[in-house]
Amino acid sequence: MKAEKVLYLGTPEILKFTVLNSKEVYYVSPEKIEIKSSRLKKFVESPQDFDVSLLPKKLDRIVNFLPFNIVTSFKIMGKYLDLLEPDKNVLIKLQVPKKQAQYTEVMLHDLLAQFKISKLSYLNIEGYGYIIGKKL
To answer: Which CATH entry fits the domain spanning 3-135: 1.10.10.10, 3.90.550.10, 3.40.50.150, 3.40.190.170?
Structure first.
């Protein structure tokens, strides 16, 4: 099932996949990309400074691939969460250094609660944590 409107923040690792599986994708990142699609709306700007009013009033999904630590990543994403409909999903990629794995899980629990996101799934692959969550 395709998502209607998706906000994609950060590095374009899975951007093509996201565009193929969505009706509209709003890409906000300073990183320039060569992907061309009528479904893709590009904003080559920093997500921290981006004017949220340029986005649709309601989103079905947020993909957060921001290349920052866990706290900064959540803080930036938090600016966009009001656009996400309740019960809609977020996908978050986190850098998880091996020495901080336990600490990251504690922080993650607190941040998910603070941003009213319920964790549906968590994977740890090659030093990165991937969270699928649902907005409460």
So the answer is: 3.40.50.150
